[in-house]
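Usage

Read records sequentially. Each one opens with the input sequence:
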Amino acid sequence: MQKNVVILDIDYVTFDEKPVIRLFSKDGDKNVVLLDDTFEPYLYVASDDLDGCLKEIQDNLDVVRVEKVLKKDFQIKTEFLKVTFKHPQELAKNRDALRDLESVIQIREFDIPFYRRYLMDRDVIPMTEVVAVGDKIDSFMDLDSDKQDVEIIKLTEKLKRVPEYPHNFRILSFDLEVRNPHGMPNPEVDEIIMIGVSSNFGINQVISTKTNSKNRNDFVNQVNSEKEMIEEFVQIIKDNNVDILVGYNSDNFDFPYLKDRAKLLGVDLDIGMDGSDIRFIRRGFANAASFKGLIHVDLYLVMRRYMTLERYTLERVYYELFGEEKIDVAGDRIWEFWDNGGEELDNLFDYSLDDVVSTLRIAEQTLPLNLELTRIIGQPLFDVSRMATGQQAEWFLVKQAYFDEEVVPNKQGANFANRAAAEDNEGGYVKEPEKGLHENLVQFDFRSLYPSIIISKNISPDVMYLGDVENKEEYNISPEHGIKFKKDPQGFIPSVIDKILQERFRIKNEMRECEDETVRKALNVQQQAIKRLANTMYGIYGFPRFRWYSFECAKAITSWGREYIKSSIKKAEEFGFYAIYADTDGFYAKYKKEKE
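and closes with the structure output:
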C-alpha cells in the first residue's frame, strides 16, 4: 500500500535482536506508525594500514561487515573503513575495543545516535510529508492497530519526500495549579486543584473539582475528584488527537508533578501514540518529559534561548512579545484563593485560563520558527526545541557533512574543553557610549558581519595554515594574529554558510515578489530561521565542546570584524559622521565635522 503521512517523531526498538526504526506519523487525523528494519548502525575507522586493520577487526570483533570507503576528511579525499554492526548497543559496546586495536588510529562518528543517523542518511525530515510504501500489519510488539487505533505499516521501500508546504498542527497548551499551603508544593501531600487547557482547535477550559460563580462558569469543567481531573486531561488529549503539547516550565515542574500525582492516584498517563506513559529522558543538563508520537515542547526553554531578559516568567515573556499585561496571582497565595472561595476563587480560575491562553499565544508566535529550524536541521522538534543555538548549528553541519561525504570530526575531551575555555578571544570591538542625550543619530550596520567574514576570508580549519608560507597571495591573512587561510578550495563551513545565505537571499527576493500574505508569512519564517542559523555558525568555532571548535578561527573572525568596524568609523569621519557608540557589527554616529 502507499500512503502520504507527516512525520512527527522517531525512535527504535529491538525485535529479533535487530533494531527497528519506528516513525510516528499522521495521515490527517489518523495515527500511523511506520516500521523500518533495514537500517544498520556504523562508524568509520582511520588507519595507516587499511588491509591489516580490516583483518584485525574481523578477527577480534563481532561485526556485520567491514568495507573500504572513500570519503573526505577536512576536504581531503581519504580512505576509511566503514564498520557496520548488528545493533546500536553492539556499536556502543565495541567502540572502546575497536579504538584499542593496534592498527586503529582513530574511530569517527561513533557518537551519533541511531535515530539521528537514520534521519540524516535516509533524508527524512520531521514535521514534513513523505510517501510511505509498505505492507499494512495488524500488530507489532506492543503496538496493536485496534487497541491503540493506529495504522501500522512495515516499509518495503525508502521514504520519498513530498515538496514542502506549511502543515497545520493541532496544538494544546496546559498548566497545573497546585494547593501549596507550605510554600513549595510536595506531590506526596499537595493536590492538583486545576488543570487549564487551551488549543488552536477550539478548546479553552479549566478542569477542577470546584467551579466559579455562575456568570463565569462557561469555561470551567467541574469534576468530582483530582483523579477524575487528571483522567479528563488525558481524555482531552486522546479525543482530540493532539500533535504538539506545550507548557511553560513543564519539563521541570508540571509533568514531574503530574506524573507523581497520577501514580499516587492510580491514573495512567497513556497518551503516547503507542499507548505508552510519560518518560523522562536526558537532554543537556536536565530531564525532558517525552511521549511517543506526541511532541512536548517546553516554551520556557525556547524563550531562554531566543530572548534576552532579566527574568523569564510567563508574565514577563508575554509582555515582551505582545506588550500586554496578563493576569497574575502570587504563587504563595494560590492556596488561599482556593480555600477562600468567592471572588478570589473566580480570580484564580481566570488566572488559570489566562496562563494557558497566554502559553498558546506564545506557542503560535514562536513555534513556526522552531518548526522551520526542525526542517532545516533535520532533527525532531522535541530535540531541536531543547538544543542550544550552537547545538542546532552543529547538527545542521553534521547533516551537511553527510551529503558532502565528509566524515565529521570527533568532539574533544573534557580536559581539552577546560583548557580551551580558558583561552581568551578579544571579541568584537566596542566603543563605550558617550554620556548624554543624543538626537539626529545615524546607524551604520553590517549585514551578517561574521558569516560574511567566514565566507569572504574562507575561515575554516580545513584550509587554515599557521606556519610560514612562500606565496602569501594564495592566502587570506588575518590582522593582528597573521592566521592564514587558503583562498582555494572553499572550506567546508564557509561553503555551508554560503549556501544557506544564498538560500536566504533567494527567499527574500521571492517574498518581495509574492502577493499572497499567507505565503509571505511562511517565507519570512524560513528566512528568519536561516538567518539565526547562519549567525550561530561563528559560535561553532568558539565553543570548545563542539566538533568544529577552532580557537584560531574564532580569533581570526573577530580580528577582521574589529578591523572592518574601526575602518568604517574612520571612513565615516571623512564624511562628517562622528561615532558616539559602537558594538561588534555596527555603530551610531552624529553628523558633524569635528567632535565638540
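Summary fields computed downstream for this record:
- Residues 342-377 form the longest helix (36 residues).
- The mean pLDDT is 91.
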